[in-house]
Amino acid sequence: MAPLVLMLASAPVHAEELPATLRASLVVRILAYDRRMSSHPPPLTIAILHQEGDTSSARGGQELRTAMEAAARGRTLAGQPMRVLRIGFRNALQLQEELSRAGVVALYACEGLEAQSEVISRVTRQLSILSLAGSAAQVNRGLAIGLIRKKNSPVILVNLSAARAEGADLDAGLLSLAQLVEPRPGQE
Question: 133, 123, 118: which is closest to 50 by C-alpha?
Fold first, then answer.
């Protein structure tokens, strides 16, 4: 497994959010640390989830989708091609149906979905989909992996109990690079 080399580009983002290109690159690299990826049929589908009707969330979702497509272009994950799609979140049932239909293996929850994190985590756990997000609040509310910045450095947060509940089989190499997060009381 190649080490993660992390650099921050200067771009206007929210307080703890990383630039889309860096988040996309990290997502692709982090997914390589989940040993389950090789057991999924190709292509490995990654969903970018935004809040339906929230212009800022939709714009962030499109920006991340574009960056993810560029990061995945010409690369394979566990020997398989990747596909990226964007989904607007309306409710748990709609999310479950769309993720199931598309055969999603990983989901990135964009800004604007913080209040829906627990609902999203119930769906990802039920479908064994690895969840990622761009805020510590979302990880504290039950999503598995957070990609944030502290000062001017990227930080990978891992809610290990959430990742396990989603069925993730994370390599120790990722855990050695990450900051482990305890779930919020009553979450697990």
Answer: 133
Neighbours of 76 (CB within 10 A): 13
Integer Cα distance of 133 and 31 in angstroms: 13
pLDDT tens digit string along 93-122? 999 999 999 999 999 999 999 999 999 999
Among 7, 15, 2, 36, smallest CA distance to 163 is for 36
Residue 164 confidence (pLDDT) above 70: yes
The ranges assigned to domains in the chain are: 20-180
Question: Which structure tokens are listed for 10?
Answer: 């200067």
- Which pTM was predicted? 0.88
Indicate the pLDDT class of residue 11, thresholds 50, 70 and 90: very low
Q: CB under 8 Å to 99, separation ≥6 — which residues?
A: 47, 87, 107, 123, 124, 127, 129
Strand locations in 23-118 (E): 44-51, 82-89, 104-109
Fold of 20-180: Rossmann fold (3.40.50)
For residue 152, what is the DSSP state? Answer: T
List, in order, residues 6 or more apart from 188 with CB less than 8 Å away: 161, 162, 165
